[in-house]
Design goal:
single chain; about 260 residues; alpha/beta; about 10% strand
């Protein structure tokens, strides 16, 4: 992103940091951007627990994906009191009812560059997909698309499905998930923390004034909590699931803006 910004700046004849986001902090990036998607996932999980009257402490979480979203999301959630019992990456998954020390797993995988499944005392080995269907309270697919399908959706044992990846649940699986009473936080909401802080980066670049990380996190919390509340409120008012509500709410906003501009009546 720094190179893209630099190339644009050379052609425009001036430094234009707001042209792209995700840049290093030294070149107009935003503090808090690296953790933003995982933090947004955690915020949505916090809200879902409150909605369902569940407690955070000891709440069992399975995370599929151990890249930026999965690893940092798991780390933040463990620090907040959640119990991370399942982890997976491209090489496979681990499930341990006693929970994982996530910082140690991050060191093992990302610093020492060793296979996740070889983590000492890691628990039961299984495929990366199978980890999604282990006993837990929250399941977070944070890897790739099409992981929960009509063929395996009935195996989901979680009370909350919070999508950290893009499109991890197929549309055919949605009806099965809904029939099981699983509370779903759709990807359009669940992983919006990253793009939200990218927007904050653009705002800071435009202002030429940069915020403390605490301020970035506070603003992200405000945006994510409001978005969650609006989606759930819309779902209940229109008697649809949260995914459909998120789409309807987004389309309504665009339609309203077009109407206010006089583009159509």
């Amino acid at each position: 992103m720094a190179w893209v910004m630099d190339t644009y700046a050379m052609h425009s004849g001036q430094a234009t940091t707001a042209v792209v986001t995700g840049k290093p902090i030294e070149l107009g990036g935003s503090r808090g951007r690296r953790e933003a998607t995982g933090r947004g996932v955690m915020i949505c999980c916090d809200k879902a627990l409150a909605k369902l009257g569940m407690k955070k402490e000891g709440c069992r979480v399975v995370v599929q994906g151990f890249g930026n979203v999965g690893s940092l999301g798991a780390k933040l959630m463990q620090e907040a009191g959640y119990k991370i019992v399942g982890l997976a990456d491209i090489g496979g998954g681990l499930y341990n009812e006693k929970g994982f020390d996530v910082p140690k797993v991050i060191d093992w995988v990302h610093t020492q560059r060793r296979p996740l499944q070889d983590f000492p005392g890691g628990g039961t080995k299984m495929s990366a997909k199978d980890v999604l269907f282990q006993p837990c309270d929250i399941v977070i697919p944070a890897a790739i698309e099409n992981q929960i399908t009509e063929k395996n959706a009935a195996q989901v044992q979680a009370k909350i499905l919070c999508e950290g990846a893009n499109g991890p649940t197929t549309w055919q699986a949605d009806a099965i998930i809904e029939s099981k009473g699983v509370f779903t936080v759709p990807d359009i909401l669940g992983n919006a923390g990253g793009v939200t802080v990218s927007y904050f980066e653009w705002v800071q670049d435009r202002q030429g004034f940069f915020w403390r990380e605490q301020e970035v996190n506070e603003r992200l919390l405000d945006v994510m909590e409001n978005a969650f509340d609006e989606v759930v409120r819309y779902a209940e008012a229109h008697r649809v699931n949260n995914r459909i509500a998120a789409y309807m709410l987004a389309i309504d906003r665009v339609a309203s803006a077009l109407k206010l501009r006089g583009i159509y009546a």
